[in-house]
Amino acid sequence: MTDQAYNFAYLDEQTKRMIRRALLKALAVPGYQVPFASREMPMPYGWGTGGVQVTAACLTPEDRLKVIDQGADDTTNAVSIRKFFERTAEVETTEHTAEATVIQTRHRIPEQPLGEGQILVYQVPIPEPLRFLEPRETETRKMHALEEYGLMHVKLYEDIAHNGAISTAYAYPVKVEGRYVMDPSPIPKFDNPKLESAAIQLFGAGREQRIYALPPHTKVVSLDFEDHPFEPSKADHDCDLCGCGTSYLDEVITDDAGGRMFVCSDTDFCASRQAQGHRGALSPQEEHA
Amino acid sequence: MTPLLSVQGVTKHYGARLGCGDVNFDLWPGEVMGIVGESGSGKSTLLSCLSGQLAPDAGKVVFDTRADGPRDVLTMSEPERRMLARTDWAFVHQNARDGLRMGVSAGGNVGERLMAVGARNYADIRAQAIDWLGRVEISEDRVDDRPRAFSGGMQQRLQIARNLVTGPRLVFMDEPTGGLDVSVQARLLDLLRGLVREMGLSAVIVTHDLAVVRLLADRLMVMKGGRVVETGLTDQVLDDPQHGYTQLLVSSVLQV
């Protein structure tokens, strides 16, 4: 079978229509989890089936797509999803955040602020922020409906009681427009402040069959206590390749003798800084002629 | 004075069978009402109807709310009823596991109701939790332990602390001493009696244990087959039972 045997962006038009209706509803009620009839995709659950469906429903032939996985453009998940859309939609792809119109991401928000006209699509494993606190889905839905969110703070209380500080470091719960409590997908809490953005942010959970969204400039507040305020945290280092002191860092083990380096998790951000001539502590030495 | 809780003609059928039929009583502020009867007599059905967990087929349950005065609980909207259930009401389950979050520390369990009504200061919440653990005789160093690590009696006391922390006015108790051994029961009863008197709580206690009502309840209601067969002051009913079933109940208590 040739690639042209597929409809544009793999999904058939009726399915895309159904997903777009769910997306519109999600945008109209920020933070609310809209059920949708998730389709089986040619990849396993947990690899981003929700995000892929949302991206497929948003893509137009003129779009330029960027796919990132934990900040990187060159990891398995990112490469295979990018290739998937190159084949089935024949859209242009890019690694540069600023050039992309649709960005599908797993577990990170790009360092470079997004602008109007860009769409950020998240892959979400578990859309329900109350899942591990209240096992009954009927009950959590009721709690969302009635705005009973005391339980969310019980989790943060437990963190402080056991660890002395709010130790939730990713999937940090947020309150959207003073109404719905939302799981921002497993992004590090460092990225939480970036949820207030000029771009449209769409969240797709394939296995759980839920879509939710943040329209541009939506107010997003990370939950906390008065005496233990929210702190976006990162490794206390500069990037060893580009020297940036404000980006989110990955720790890379370099040998079996305790050697390690810290590098920007956003590869595009790091590469463009290096191209501008920024250097970190472990950058390769410039060759002298 | 208006009664805190006024129950008028509450009836619940399970299909053709009667759960509880035409129950009427008034509960006054600071009063403890005991409901006794054998298994299947409709005590728990009645308690569920009163606490809004079960919708009765007929009748009214009028609660004297703080804000709006007497209101029928059954016609309230669900958000209002749930708000009531976590502020002015408390429900102590027979099995502490039903009323506690087993995966959350003792402090978190006590603090949950506070956080549910808007407390957002960790130090305050923790101080109140420790204060309440002290009141139910759980030592401060157990505040971060999970209820799993507690004995049955401690779990039950923790459940009571968790329920009373927001200063409710009405407590529903379903066999609060069930499944505990006698010495632990005695301590729990002692504690409950102290708390009820000290806080001026009103309570509805469902039990099959006559000793419990003798110690705690001011008034007694005896149920059989879904109907109330006798009501009166506790000592009066227990010392001079009139109805045949009450006589049987009183005489079947083992004397040691």
Quick summary:
Chain A has helices spanning 13-28, 49-58, 76-88, 137-145, 150-163, 267-275; strands at residues 34-35, 64-69, 92-93, 102-106, 119-123, 174-176, 180-182, 200-205, 210-214, 220-222, 249-253, 260-264. Chain A is α/β, with parallel strands linked by helices and 289 residues long.
Characterise this structure.
Chain A: GO terms for molecular function: 4 iron, 4 sulfur cluster binding; alpha-D-ribose 1-methylphosphonate 5-phosphate C-P-lyase activity; metal ion binding. Chain A: InterPro entries: PhnJ. Chain A: Belongs to the PhnJ family. The complex is a heterodimer of chains A (289) and B (256). Chain A has 289 residues and is an alpha/beta fold. Chain A folds into 2 domains: 13-222, 3-Layer(aba) Sandwich (Rossmann fold), CATH 3.40.50.11310; 234-282, Ribosomal Protein L24e, Chain: T, CATH 2.30.170. Helix content of chain A is 25%, strand content 17%. A 7-stranded mixed β-sheet of chain A has the order 1-9-8-5-4-2-3. Chain A has a 3-stranded antiparallel β-sheet with strand order 7-6-10, with no helix packed on it. The radius of gyration of chain A is 20 Å and the shape is globular. In chain A, 45% of the residues are buried. Chain B starts with a strand and ends in a 5-residue tail after the last helix. Chain B has helices at residues 43-50, 78-87, 96-99, 106-116, 122-135, 152-164, 182-199, 210-216, 234-239, 244-251, and strands at residues 5-14, 17-27, 32-36, 58-65, 69-72, 89-92, 170-174, 202-207, 219-224, 227-233. In chain B, 46% of the residues are buried. Chain B is of the alpha/beta class and 256 residues long. Helix content of chain B is 39%, strand content 26%. Chain B has a 6-stranded mixed β-sheet with strand order 6-7-8-3-9-10, with helices on both faces. A 4-stranded antiparallel β-sheet of chain B has the order 2-1-4-5, with helices on one face. Chain B has a domain at 1-88 and 170-177 and 202-256: Rossmann fold (3-Layer(aba) Sandwich), CATH 3.40.50. Chain A binds chain B through residues 133, 146, 148, 150-151, 153-154, 157-158, 160-162, 225-228, and chain B through 78-79, 82, 86, 101, 104-105, 107-108, 111-113, 115-117, 120-123, 125-126, 143-144.
